[in-house]
Amino acid sequence: MLLVELYIYKGEFAKAEELPCLNNNDNSDVRRPLFKAIIKVLLNETPEAIKEWEEFRKLRSDYLLPPDVKDSQFYTLLADFDSFERVVKVLREDIFKKPRAKF
């Protein structure tokens, strides 16, 4: 999953999307649909992003969260797709505004 993040931050969304860890549907890691939703937003594929977002929310609801997490800004941010999409679009701006480091 770290490689997925790296490709996202480098602006190489197609490479991130092709990684095997994102295509393993047997994986119960909640980051899989979250990263897929992020990539789909970054690629302007909103219907697919919403589908992955819903999968993320479903998986996330299967895990018990500590009570203080529900009061955090992070929880509020992930409460609805529109908030999530706004933050991802800001990420896109940051990715393409700043000079990227060579890896």
Automatic annotation (TrEMBL):
Parent sequence residues shown: 159 to 261 of 261
Organism domain of life: Eukaryota
Protein name: Uncharacterized protein LOC103484367
Keywords: Membrane, Transmembrane, Transmembrane helix
